[in-house]
Amino acid sequence: MLNGIWLSFFIAAFAASLWQWLVGGDSEVFARLVASLFDMARVSVDIILVLLGTMTLWLGFLSIAEKAGMIRLLGRALDPLFSRLMPEVPRGHPAMGLISMNFAANILGLDNAATPIGIKAMHSLQTLNPSRDTASNAQILFLVLNTSSLTLLPVTIFMYRAQQGAAEPTLVFLPILLATSASSFAGLIAVALVQRIRLFQPVVLCYLVAAALALGLLITTLAGLSSQALAAASTLIGNLALFNIVMLFLLVGALRGVKVYDAFIEGAKEGVSFTVTLLPYLIAMLVAIGVLRASGVLDAGLNGVRWLIESIGWDTRFVDALPTAFIKPLSGSGARAMMIETMDTFGVDSFPGLLAATLQGSTETTFYVLAVYFGAVGISRIRHGLGCALLADAAGIIMAIGVCYWFFG
Asked: What is the pTM for the complete model shown?
């Protein structure tokens, strides 16, 4: 399936470019396509260089956690839930602890920590996969939940809004929280339906109800804070949680007799090898996305949506923020650029500006996550993984639009 998707990007870009050249008289379109190939290849290397340091650092710390038995301990805590959502993963398997840590990092908005942990978890799940090039049910569920981007502390969104001069940078906190929760819930439901996972089991319901209550309590608590207090709390919680995790690994490892330095070096070496294997997959996906953008296919889609909404007679203010939504599944940096461009054009606290920020925080860069996580373990047959992930994206986008009309309309 991934082969067909990748090829379709190039075919769509080529067809659109031919049309612009032969009908529109744009003789520079193919120069833009070629330039995008090399630009995206360079961007891929830049991303890998950043990932190299991050992966080396975090896999070093994860090695200490593994040797100290902390991964197994986390796995046991979620065994009752994931043994039902991922029945092919044995109880107490190291993958459960890694999955737990990945979700915790994502929830806290610690993207740099979440990615290497997630790749490690995917490698662990791959050891249970009977077909080396085909995604297992557990790997698909893990991927979809990652692409749905359940984040409680979107600190980076607050930072960009503050840089653009927002009066209250954290104004989008609750809209983002509601939108990303809808995305994650939709992704879980979609995978459960395809894989015939029974979500109404008592144990699963206990976990989901507990999570919903915790989310409601957090929203109730934070909703009473001022924007300045909320921004300060978000930053403090994120940084404190990150460094506390590091210290916990080191202290527990030392108390249990782990040679923490040697364990760190062992894991760091593994991080280097992991990162190098990602480069071909990342280049392949990003160059395909690059030519799709350079050909104008995405702009044409946006104009089509605007025409359709106008013909129905609906309010079209949300269309000005849709470039962020369209590009987010394809390119995180591209969506970030679109969000900032929307803020510059319409105002950081305008409806399109607020919606663009909410859209940026509601979902993850689906194709990037797919390329990195599946590419790290050599999976090319992704089965229903992409469809469920895009459905989660769509749910997040729709919820973001609805919530922004509710909060800011």
From this structure: 0.74
